[in-house]
Amino acid sequence: MPNGKYYVTSESVSEGHPDKLCDQVSDAILDDVLRQDTRGRVACETFVTMGLIIVGGEITTTAYVDVINLARKVIRDIGYTHPKYGLDYQTCAVLNAIHSQSPDIAQGVDRGGAGDQGLMVGYACDETPELMPLPIMLAHRLVKRMSDLRKQKILKYLGPDGKSQVTVEYKNGKPKRVNSVVLASQHTEEILDRSGERITQKAIKEMIEKIAKPVLGKLADSKTEYYINQTGKFLIGGPQSDTGMTGRKIVVDTYGGIVSHGGGAFSGKDPTKVDRSGAYVARYVTKNIVAAGLARQCSIQLAYVIGKAEPLGLLIETYGTGRISEERLVKLVREHFDLTPRGIITELDLLRPIYGKTAVYGHFGREDQDFTWEKCDKIRLLKKAARIK
Length: 389
Fold this sequence. Notes:
The chain has helices spanning 18-36, 67-78, 103-109, 134-151, 201-216, 250-253, 274-291, 326-336, 341-348, 379-386, and strands at 5-13, 41-49, 52-60, 81-82, 87-88, 93-99, 118-125, 158-171, 174-187, 225-228, 244-245, 297-304, 313-317. Strands 1-8-9-10 form a four-stranded mixed beta sheet, covered by helices on one side. The longest helix is centred in the first third of the chain and has 19 residues, at 18-36. It folds into three domains: 5-13 and 133-237, 2-Layer Sandwich (GMP Synthetase, Chain A, domain 3); 18-105, GMP Synthetase, Chain A, domain 3 (2-Layer Sandwich), CATH 3.30.300; 118-125 and 247-386, 2-Layer Sandwich (GMP Synthetase, Chain A, domain 3), CATH 3.30.300. α1 (18-36) packs across α2 (67-78). By secondary structure, it is of the alpha+beta class.
């Protein structure tokens, strides 16, 4: 990170955002396959628009998945339970267009090779307890709180669709304060002013006081700027307003734009797909490096080719914060982490129905025992190998 004062921005979206709705449907189907068949192969994509959901992709499994009713359950649990929100789980159409995986792919994966080519990026830094960048963590917490207050009926006028954006001021590489916050939340007509064009000042203040400030705490100050439903109103939301597709929020899913992204989406893919498992092990590696004190910031890039187990590329960057050379870190990682698809799946215990909850509020930085890629169990080993106390 540069010296002096600068600003970093990240965004997140709520569980009712059309793209996130699709991620959740795709991962719900993956979970249902894994409950019944841990050898199942899943690459499931979802598309949603006003009144219609299409579920497609490639699945090979001995399991039976009731795709249509499973999709309706996800939509209901999110909160699309009334036509006023632009989508109703009971009346929307759901089309199933799933077919089996290509045997050309299977013959490489069955031998333990990667399920596709591509590159994956992992990152960790010491600016939060979760070893994550602060802007994306705040953005996730804001939309999570938005959803919690809606479901608890504390802010009854909120709808399922919503977004957040946070700009953090840094000085000499350290986060100092929140410069601005953007909240966009779908809502009902009850908070419109007399003109019908804008929400009331009372509602704006309530959203700042009940959503933003409890999350920001002392990071907010008198100069922090708040932008609440900046166009004036957000009555039409969800799939009525925007189409959604699986895999279109990959930066929200990862590090909020702080580092590059490999390009592959996660949701709807079983862990033989290195787009997902490779990104998870990349986080596991970098988090343990930072937790061990070998660097204050660390990113890793992995690269695979379909049908081959070992990664073709392994690049580590510590941004001038490393206590040992990046060349030595690469050697340590190769010695102490199994980066083959089978090794990753075994180490992180990935053949479990855990993916539904990864589909919202980020795949990384989560305090949940099922997020095994967040464990820091290599600290002592790495310190010893690096000869650092």
